[in-house]
């Protein structure tokens, strides 16, 4: 049915490539390209062994639009899945525009010198993608991604009006390292050291970063894994959801962190290791956070010893036919099972599967449109069905537990 070019061969790229290879009736040709071709070749070898399918591999520096354009012209894909880093979003979007190919990613653009992830740069492509007759699907991982689809589903099936949304992201897994991040350490640490924002009554409200003593947190009793400390955090899907979920009065995002993780990160920050500016060291220019990334475990290699589960979902409070009630939609994913299937931990798995599903829906013409879309603007039903079919089953429950009111 279609040809897919996947850019990025890290933790998530490995899952996307394997999930696409599991569905050759949709993805009849696959090319996996990245900065380090050896990583693509290693994944291609696994795919050949596991599924008997040959995929192509290529070297590309996706910071250079002309390299991506040349690769697209050579391979002629119908869609590009970008699972490199957020820094490459715009150069890859430019290349898709120049060649008339659909685009999909899992994280919004962020300039290297400024840890401000915002959709404004990618939304600015709206008219150009429309005129070119192609589709860009933004933020199609788990969060953003599945959480946005959960919101669209709740809006479509349960509520006339959603008043509040709380997104709760719990990783109750244990990887056996004193300190490691579950996806790219540089991107992860930039995200979690920011000032926190949530949205209420039409404006963004700032609160202290998670490392500060007065950060906002509470204990939530997660299904299957029990109580975990959950910290208020800014997360990118809130920016598009406040635009697209009508009548919303408040949206917050919570993520679990262990004391050990917070202590390590606090020390690293205090000694300057999370800085993103260049430091002169013995005649070399070093960016401390990039150097730290080099020292930390590679997220794509955490899976082998990872035990436990992730539990990510949304709690809605809204009104239907005059009745006010809460619903909880969530997925539970087991690290060890994900590893058994595609040799990846659950954070890579829960990101890679939705990216494959989004691309599949575009190739099948089920998700169709011209322009730039966040996933909650597209029909959630086929995506929700596909989540069950392709490894991320979800549950819906009435919710009568407590959430902090502030
Ligand atoms: P990794 O760091 O494991 O992998 C990134 C890959 O991109 C590496 O193969 C890297 O190559 C490649 N890459 C980096 N720069 C370039 C470049 N200039 N040109 C070509 N390839 C490049 O990250 P993850 O797999 O953990 O994450 C991938 C993406 O998924 C990130 O954008 C992340 O933010 C997003 N994500 C989204 C989530 C969601 O739920 N929405 C959750 C988790 C992650 P090399 O090996 O040479 O460094």
Structure in a nutshell:
By secondary structure, the chain is α/β, with parallel strands linked by helices.
Name a few traits of the molecule.
single chain, 406 residues, alpha/beta, Rossmann fold, Dihydrodipicolinate Reductase, domain 2, 2 domains, 7-stranded parallel β-sheet, 14 helices, binds NADPH dihydro-nicotinamide-adenine-dinucleotide phosphate, NAD(P)-bd_dom_sf, Sacchrp_dh-like_C, Saccharopine dehydrogenase family protein, Sacchrp_dh_NADP-bd
Report what the structure shows:
It is a single chain. This protein is of the alpha/beta class and 406 residues long. It is 35% helix and 27% strand. It has helices at residues 11-21, 37-51, 65-75, 89-99, 120-123, 126-132, 146-157, 185-192, 237-244, 259-270, 288-295, 335-342, 346-363, 380-389; strands spanning 2-7, 27-34, 56-59, 79-82, 102-105, 135-138, 161-171, 196-200, 203-207, 217-222, 226-232, 250-256, 279-281, 284-286, 309-320, 323-334, 371-374, 394-398. A hairpin with a 3-residue loop joins strand 10 and strand 11 (226-232). Helix 1 crosses helix 13 and helix 13 (346-363) crosses helix 14 (380-389). The longest helix has 18 residues, at 346-363. The model has no long low-confidence stretch (mean pLDDT 96). Residues 141-392 form the Saccharopine dehydrogenase-like C-terminal domain. InterPro entries: NAD(P)-bd_dom_sf (IPR036291), Sacchrp_dh-like_C (IPR032095), Sacchrp_dh_NADP-bd (IPR005097).
């Amino acid at each position: 049915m279609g040809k897919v070019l996947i850019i990025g061969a890290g933790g998530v790229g490995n899952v996307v490539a394997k999930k696409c290879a599991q569905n050759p009736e949709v993805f009849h040709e696959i090319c996996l390209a990245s900065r380090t071709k050896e990583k693509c070749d290693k994944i291609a070898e696994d795919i050949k062994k596991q599924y008997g399918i040959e995929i192509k591999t290529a070297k590309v520096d996706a910071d250079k639009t002309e390299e991506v354009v040349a690769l697209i012209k050579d391979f002629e894909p119908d869609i590009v899945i970008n699972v490199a880093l957020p820094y490459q979003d715009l150069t890859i979007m430019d290349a898709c525009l120049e060649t008339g190919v659909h685009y999909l990613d899992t994280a919004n653009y962020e300039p290297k010198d400024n840890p401000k992830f915002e959709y404004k740069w990618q939304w600015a492509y709206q008219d150009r993608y429309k005129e070119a007759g192609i589709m860009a699907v933004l933020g199609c991982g788990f969060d953003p991604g599945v959480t946005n689809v959960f919101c669209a589903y709740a809006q479509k099936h349960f509520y006339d009006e959603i008043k509040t949304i709380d997104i709760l992201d719990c990783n109750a897994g244990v990887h056996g390292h004193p300190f490691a991040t579950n996806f790219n350490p540089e991107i992860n640490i930039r995200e979690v050291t920011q000032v926190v924002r949530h949205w209420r009554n039409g404006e963004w409200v700032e609160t202290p970063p998670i490392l500060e003593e007065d950060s906002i947190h509470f204990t939530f009793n997660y299904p299957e894994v029990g109580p975990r400390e959950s910290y208020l955090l800014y997360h990118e899907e809130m920016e598009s959801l406040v635009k697209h979920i009508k009548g919303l009065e408040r949206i917050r995002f919570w993520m679990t962190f262990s004391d050990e993780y917070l202590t390590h990160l606090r020390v690293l920050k205090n000694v300057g290791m999370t800085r993103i500016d260049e430091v002169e060291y013995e005649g070399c220019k070093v960016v401390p956070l990039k150097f730290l990334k080099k020292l930390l475990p590679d997220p794509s290699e955490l899976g082998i010893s990872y035990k436990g589960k992730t539990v990510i979902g949304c709690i809605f409070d809204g009104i239907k036919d005059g009745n006010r009630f809460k619903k909880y939609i969530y997925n539970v994913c087991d690290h060890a099972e994900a590893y058994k299937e595609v040799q990846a931990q659950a954070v890579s798995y829960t990101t890679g599967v939705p990216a494959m599903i989004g691309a599949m829906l575009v190739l099948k013409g089920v998700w169709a449109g011209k322009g730039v879309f966040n996933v909650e603007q597209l029909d959630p039903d086929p995506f929700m069905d596909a989540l069950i079919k392709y490894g991320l089953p979800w549950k819906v429950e009435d919710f009568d537990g407590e959430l902090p009111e502030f």
